[in-house]
Amino acid sequence: MPPSCDCLIYIYMYLYKYVYTLERCSSALHDHHQHEAVVWRVRSSVCRMPLGEDGNGWKKKTTDIKEHYDFKEVLGTGAFSEVVLAEEKRTQRLVAIKCIPKKALEGKENNIENEIAVLHRIKHANIVTLEDIFESTSHLYLVMQLVSGGELFDRIVEKGFYTERDASQLIHQILDAVKYLHDMGIVHRDLKPENLLYYSMDEESKIMISDFGLSKIEGSGSVMSTACGTPGYVAPEVLAQKPYSKAVDCWSIGVISYILLCGYPPFYDENDSKLFEQILKAEYEFDSPYWDDISDSAKDFICHLMEKEPLKRYTCEQALQHPWICGDTALDKNIHESVSAQIKKNFAKSKWKQAFNATAVVRHMRKLQLGTSLEGPSQITPTSPCHGHLLPEEEEEEEEDDLGN
Description:
With 405 residues, the protein is α+β, with helices and mostly antiparallel strands. The chain has a domain at 5-145: 2-Layer Sandwich (Phosphorylase Kinase, domain 1). It is 31% helix and 18% strand. It has helices at residues 5-14, 109-121, 152-158, 164-183, 236-239, 247-262, 272-281, 296-305, 316-320, 323-326, 336-346, 349-352, 358-367, and strands at 22-28, 36-42, 69-77, 82-88, 94-101, 130-135, 139-145, 186-187, 196-198, 207-209, 216-217, 379-384, 387-391. The strands form 5 sheets. It has a 5-stranded antiparallel beta sheet, covered by helices on one side. Strands 1-2 form a two-stranded antiparallel ribbon. It has a two-stranded antiparallel ribbon with strand order 8-11. A hairpin with a 5-residue loop joins strand 4 and strand 5. Mean pLDDT is 73; it is low at 5-57, 220-229 and 350-405. Residues 373-405 are annotated as: Disordered. It is found in: Cytoplasm; Nucleus. ATP binds at residue 103. InterPro entries: Kinase-like_dom_sf, Prot_kinase_dom, Protein_kinase_ATP_BS, Ser/Thr_kinase_AS. Belongs to the protein kinase superfamily.
């Protein structure tokens, strides 16, 4: 059966996330002579595992992919790749296929192989999965699970009834999936509402975590200290360019929980320097009247996740044991009117796409003398109402105008 019009609309709107973009950046290569070079880097995992040795024995298929799949509409395009809607011939099942020209990856094959290895390890009901890999003489094809239910915030706005308990159930699913990742030694590093998609248009559809372009395997040969993620959701230790751990994902879940209960971010300022200072100090409030009808249990839950000190911050396992998640302290009062109004005000699509002054942030971080990352300084591109997307690659000031999707 072909997909419905509504389904196709959602697919077109939301599956652009799978477009694999290659972004220009430069890198300061620090050796005895402080040589500098401009490099092209794949936006991917930076883990260092042997190719094809991820424990699952994954192997690319070299048969013609079109013998197995009928390619249909293009869902999205990037500078060096495109994603197409496809139907598996044997089962008539719809999938999303990311098509990456090999020319775009010349000299960087190891990076994409590493990301594939990370994705291939992940098998969880609430995580978008990599289902198959094909290789031709000219392209690499990643067959991805298709999700067509739309983004988290859009579904909340569309609801007529929304409660704390609804938010609690959403966060429960996210915590369970992220705990699975952490148990596998994988840190997502870019959890945010835009990366949380509904599996289908069904009212009771599950939530899915997507976009593992910034994922990292702990203990894979380098210390995590690269400033990556999205500032509105990123932990203080990441902005401070300190070595960090999987606790950064727990902070992000705390920020998402905060927004789900009020409709606006805990950290916001038109001035980029002040925004960073708020996050670095972990300064946030439960403002009246927006939080007046929210339970103390919900606030306590958020405070344990949005704890400045990583060692004191709740782990996913601890968060799953909190009464607001596993007990009956989440309230059933309808908070839809207030939350949806704030979401529409603060997370409008136009704001998500606004250009962001990357230069200002980089200069601010240098001014604060936050130090040099062991993996390299941050790189920033626009994506979020809470400002830019910090990519895990190095850059030089003169190259910052080239950043962006």
